[in-house]
Amino acid sequence: MKDVGHWINGRQVEGASGRVGPIFDPAVGEQTGQVALASRDEVDRAVQAARAALPAWSAFSPLRRARIMFNFKALLEAHIDELARLVTSEHGKTLEDAKGSVTRGIEVVEFATGIPSLLKGEFSRNVGPGTDLLSFRQPLGVCAGITPFNFPAMIPLWMFPLAITCGNTFVLKPSEKDPSCPLRIAELAKEAGVPDGVVNVVNGDKEAVDAILTHPGIASVSFVGSTRIAEYVYHTGTAHNKRVQALGGAKNHMVVMPDADPEQVTDALMGSVYGSAGERCMAITVAVAVGKAGDRLVEDLVPRVQSLKIGPGHEPGVEMGPLVSKELHDKVRGYIDSGVEEGADLVVDGRDFQLKGYQGYENGFFIGGSIFDQVKPGMKIYTDEIFGPVLSVVRANDFASAIELVNAHEYGNGTAIFTRDGDAARTFAEQVEIGMVGVNVPIPVPMAFHSFGGWKRSLFGDHHMHGPEGVRFFTKAKAVTTRWPTGIRAGADFSIPTMA
Questions:
Q1: Residue 251 to residue 414: CA distance in whole angstroms
Q2: Sign of the Cα pseudo-torsion (430, 431, 435, 438, in order)
Q3: What is the distance of C-alpha 104 from the center of its chain?
Q4: How far is residue 497 from each of residues 129, 191, 358, measured CA to CA in Å?
Q5: Residue 429 burial (CB < 10 Å; 0-12/13-18/19+)?
Q6: By the 8 A CB rule, do 245 and 463 touch?
Q7: How far apart are the first and last CA of the chain?
Q8: What is the rounded distance in angstroms from the CA atom of residue 231 to the CA atom of residue 174?
Q9: Helices (DSSP H) in 126-259: which residue ranges?
Q10: Are strands 414-418 and 411-412 parallel, antiparallel or unpaired?
Q11: What is the DSSP string of 355-410?
Q12: Are strands 243-247 and 411-412 parallel, antiparallel or unpaired?
């Protein structure tokens, strides 16, 4: 049984609150450790460490901070297999998937190495007689991040590297379900040259979250999680005068046109629905089959889902690992039950999946892939984010009806269209009310030099995450107007200056 504490002021510290939470290996279904749950006092310790480190760190030149990020990137790449194993051991996703998620996090670190260019200001000479104007961006102060269980490496790396490279210091509260990887990443940041106190990690539950949202020493909060919590984080944080970006839930639709390549569609859905056991905010969970595309789609998918190779994430060849917890396992089963009760056609039932061929993992949180056909808007399996390996197939008579269906949903995170028709693809990308759109790309996660974020109830706040919008989120603008004495005095001017 391992004990996981916090990372404050450049070192690991044990929990002082006396409260702990369990850490499970979801493939085995057994507890492997416990994690300290921070009190308000422990969160304050981390904030005070970050505040103490802020003046010296923000005085570092952007170039110096960038060079530390180069070191950090190299260390993450050197330890990528170790980090992937930590993710798999506590989350359950396959090693290949875990390694890919670390890589997507490293890409943000790579983007952050360009901070000298990203922080360049603007200058206008002679905006008025002998007057120049300079504008630039400065750090906010102490920033905080609250990250989910499904990406314990990637999403922390989407937040703190860019925040600190902009000159801020950071307090991270990762998910208490899989805390080991974020702590190891903090250790690597120190090894790369990040000074003590610049990056702090506090593990915890709602008490720690509320302490972050209300702490007067924290300037901004970044969050990824469910919509219900995202809305709470946004309203609570902004009520306490913080800048907040809160990314919420999703119900991502893939529109399948009759002219789409059937094999391409099937491959895309298999990976995007059942990869990471559906525990992705960018997972496709609804396939909108237009016209005659539906029957072929379901026919092709059924044998593929039935033959999914499910097992422990560290085993070679496994395509889908367990769900992260018994609670989520039972929740997903409950959604499948409700789909049957509401009249959807359950063509592949994953509820009674029995793991075979892997001795010692019989009690893991495994569930099989499921497919519902003839799903209707209004059913719970259509309206709610299930966060499990369940696909709903909805039939649409035509292209216009498919767009209306996507736009009517409360979530607006990601979507995709599969077609050979360039006009349909262009129209879809233009008219669909979704933040991230894929054309023959099932999981359209932007690269790090663009920004990630949804629309509608998938995002609360004005800024998307990482990329150029991330730089703007973690900095504030300042304008300096300068005039030097010339020996000519014109006297007091009581009208607003026009610089004429």
A1: 8
A2: negative
A3: 11
A4: 12, 52, 77
A5: middle
A6: yes
A7: 73
A8: 18
A9: 154-165, 180-192, 206-214, 227-239
A10: unpaired
A11: --S-TT-TTS-----EEEES--TTSHHHHS---SSEEEEEEESSHHHHHHHHHHSS
A12: unpaired
Tokens of 477: 């603008």
Q: CB neighbours (10 Å) of residue 249?
A: 20
| Residue 197 · residue 169 · CB < 8 Å | yes
Residue 491: what pLDDT? 76
Give me the count of residues in the chain.
500
Q: What is the DSSP letter of 320?
A: B
Contact 170, 144 (CB under 8 A): yes
Query: Strands 390-396 and 252-256, how do they pair?
Result: unpaired
Closest C-alpha to 141, from 40, 235, 238, 52: 52
Task: Look at the block and give the residue holding tokens 């919590």.
Answer: 229
Distance, CA of 25 to CA of 3 (rounded, Å): 14
pTM (predicted TM-score): 0.95
Residues 133 and 38: their CA atoms lie apart, in Å, by: 46
281 is an active site residue: yes
Residues 474/143, Cβ–Cβ less than 8 Å: yes
Catalytic residue among 143, 166, 181, 281: 281
Residue bearing tokens 């110096």? 64
Please name which of 189, 167, 51 lies closest in space to residue 118, comparing C-alpha atoms.
167
C-alpha–C-alpha distance, residues 309 and 312, integer Å: 10
Report residue 347 as tokens: 């063509």
In a 10 Å sphere around its CB, with 0-12 CB exposed, 13-18 middle and 19+ buried, how is residue 456 labelled? Answer: middle
d(CA 201, CA 11): 10
Distance separating alpha carbons of residues 165 and 71, to the nearest angstrom: 13
Token code pair at residue 288: 């909108």
pLDDT < 50 regions, the chain = none
Full set of structural domains in the chain with CATH? 2-248+458-480 (3.40.605.10), 252-439 (3.40.309.10)
Q: What is the pLDDT of residues 174-221, one digit of tens each?
A: 999 999 999 999 999 999 999 999 999 999 999 999 999 999 999 999
If one counts every other C-beta atom within 10 angstroms of the C-beta of residue 263, the result is 9
Which candidate, 275, 272, 295, 298, places its Cα nearest to that of 285?
272
Helix axes 80-91, 95-112, angle to 10 degrees: 130
Compute the distance between CA of residue 500 and CA of residue 490 in angstroms, rounded to an integer.
14
State how far the Cα of 122 lies from the Cα of 134, in Å rounded to an integer: 6
The confidence score (pLDDT) of residue 500 equals 62
CA angle 121, 127, 130 (to 5 degrees): 110
Which pLDDT belongs to residue 499? 67
Q: Say if residues 91 and 149 touch (Cβ distance below 8 Å).
A: yes
